[in-house]
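Appendix B. Chain record.
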Amino acid sequence: MARVCQLYPKAAPATLVHKFFLVFDQWKWPTPVMLRHPEEIPSANLPYPVWDSRNNLSDRAHLMPILTPTFPQQNSTFNVSHSTKNIMAQEFKIGLQACEDVFSGKSDWNGLFEVSDFFHRYKHYIVIQATAANNK
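Structure tokens predicted for this chain:
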């Protein structure tokens, strides 16, 4: 959404939601989503690798790269597989159609926020729960 806000800085909230689904439905993956261009910093003595598909072979394999804006820039979606990419692409299409139905008067915003049948559509999924003994 941050990238969409950069692209449409004066857009109304409803327009931003629509543009989010439109932009990512049409995005030319694996072109990375970036809030800013990577810094040209020599890689010598860096404690962490910087995402760069031009120089890092493993970065070229990423299917839907969305880069963090802070140094060192990393791909926050490095673990997207072909299967999850296809699921996200379908969900972008569903969201875009819901927005277009709202703008054409066929529906209201409730259609976009219908309860998901995620646990019925997918046989396998992972639940991650993180806890800590204290606030540190």
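Further analysis of this model is presented in Appendix C.
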